[in-house]
């Protein structure tokens, strides 16, 4: 196995805090001590300083490590938001998040450029304006990341502003900085990839809604384009039609082909699980998890199998 860590992503906020030590104990009993600092966790740290102390106490008491952080994200927190009155606050919170990441020994800080202000018709903003907004934020964030020793990882997603070509635009713009790289999301790449017999009418409704302007442009070579710059990866599966965040082997990704490629990425710092534990349906569609959802046992065993390839 590569020297890069596998960091486990768990839905901590779905459970009361008094249950978290039991969850950590479960992972520790499987030999797992590396975790993802989720966007929900960092948001709570930003809003409630005492919660930051709680997170530090958990790490100290149980000997666990948060080695990867997903930045705050969404309509008000993505880098390209167009509301000028919100931008100073947004940038300041990303700066504070980078500093917190450094305090925890985090290696990568995954960011979304943002999709909302391009895909929602009433706010539709051209890509060139959104790029300018993203660069404005990154121009401030990158020097802080360099100082903190954290790599800002720009994530590929399934909307036009987060396509592989857009991700490459930002990486190339900061090509002289070691503090900018790529978070390769396996599920998002699979969602955008063509495959034999794929039928456009089966896409989840948010796909044509995201690409309403010119139609869905599939991407067959996301990994090839992003390969030299990948520093972390979100690992999950789907059926090629919706962002289901399923357990590997429950969708149609060919892991025997993908994993050797990912493990040969020259800049890889760590890998991240990013599986939705729920069953039934959520915003992404009909989920592939069994009744009752995925267990920690299933997660650990599946990823150990995956990393034995």
Helix content: 25-40%
CA-based shape: globular
Classify the secondary structure makeup into a structural class.
Answer: alpha/beta
User: Radius of gyration from the CA trace?
Assistant: 19 Å
Number of H/I helices:
12
Give the ordered list of helices and strands.
Answer: EHEHHEHEHHEHEHHHEHEEEH
Present the secondary structure layout.
Blueprint: E1 5-7, H1 20-29, E2 34-37, H2 39-47, H3 49-62, E3 65-70, H4 87-103, E4 108-111, H5 116-119, H6 127-148, E5 151-155, H7 164-173, E6 180-185, H8 186-192, H9 206-210, H10 222-226, E7 230-235, H11 255-262, E8 270-273, E9 281-282, E10 285-286, H12 296-306
Parallel strand pairs: 1-8, 2-3, 3-4, 4-5, 5-6, 6-7, 7-8
Antiparallel strand pairs: 9-10
Describe, in plain words, how this protein is organized in 3D.
This protein is α/β, with parallel strands linked by helices and 309 residues long. It has one domain: TIM Barrel, CATH 3.20.20. It contains 12 helices and 10 strands. The chain has an 8-stranded parallel sheet. Strand 5, helix 7 (164-173) and strand 6 (180-185) form a beta-alpha-beta unit.
Can you tag this structure with a few keywords?
single chain, 309 residues, alpha/beta, TIM Barrel, 12 helices, 39% helix
Short summary:
The protein has 12 helices and 10 strands.
